[in-house]
């Protein structure tokens, strides 16, 4: 089972030490993590985000999620993967994370890549991970999207037209 946790840290300066302590204590169930925040010549945002790929016993993963959610200023959501069309609306503002589970990545990889290239102007961050799905090699692609929300929805719709893919989404309000 693929489990991805998205975390919004409202004040990196204040909460990052506590978050790091919890992540270190539960390192055995974390197979990958990606952290990012807004950074440019005029801004170093105090708000940050993390994507964590969990790999461990379900109870241990639940303990990690519970500990993170108990920290004030932290919002954690699990990415739930599904096949077919999604009826859940995308939130209007805030962070938008999309996960794509690609079984038979050797067969479907090029088709997925073509779609991602088409929508490359709204893909800000991309992380690719090797996974196992139903005992077979698979790929897990995690995306941070930014820009035109209509393009996010079009991207997700194009991906969902590939029946074999499982798609997950996490939206954090602004």
Q: Mind explaining what this structure looks like?
A:
By secondary structure, this protein is α+β, with helices and mostly antiparallel strands. It has 2 domains: 3-79, 2-Layer Sandwich (Alpha-Beta Plaits); 95-172, 2-Layer Sandwich (Alpha-Beta Plaits), CATH 3.30.70.1150. The chain has 4 helices and 8 strands. It has helices at 12-25, 58-69, 105-118, 149-160, and strands at residues 3-9, 30-39, 44-54, 74-79, 95-103, 123-133, 136-145, 166-172. Strand 6 and strand 7 form a beta hairpin. The two termini are 30 Å apart. The model has no long low-confidence stretch (mean pLDDT 85).
Summarize the structure.
By secondary structure, this protein is of the alpha+beta class. The protein contains four helices and eight strands, in the order E-H-E-E-H-E-E-H-E-E-H-E.
Give the key terms.
single chain, 174 residues, alpha+beta, Alpha-Beta Plaits, four-stranded antiparallel beta sheet, 30% helix, 41% strand, globular
């Amino acid at each position: 089972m693929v489990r991805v946790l998205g975390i919004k840290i409202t004040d990196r300066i204040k909460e990052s030490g506590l978050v790091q302590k919890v992540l270190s204590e539960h390192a055995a169930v974390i197979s990958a993590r990606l952290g990012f925040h807004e950074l440019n010549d005029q801004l170093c945002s105090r708000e940050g985000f993390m994507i964590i790929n969990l790999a461990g016993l379900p109870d241990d993963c639940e303990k990690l999620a519970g500990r993170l959610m108990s920290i004030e200023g932290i919002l954690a959501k699990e990415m739930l993967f599904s096949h077919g069309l999604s009826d859940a609306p995308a939130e209007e503002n805030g962070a938008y994370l999309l996960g794509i589970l690609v079984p038979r990545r050797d067969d479907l990889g090029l088709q997925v890549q073509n779609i991602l290239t088409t929508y490359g102007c709204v893909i800000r961050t991309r992380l690719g991970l090797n996974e196992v799905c139903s005992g077979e090699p698979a790929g897990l692609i995690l995306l941070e999207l930014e820009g035109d929300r209509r393009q996010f929805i079009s991207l997700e719709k194009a991906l969902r037209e590939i029946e074999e893919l499982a798609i997950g989404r996490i939206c954090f309000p602004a």
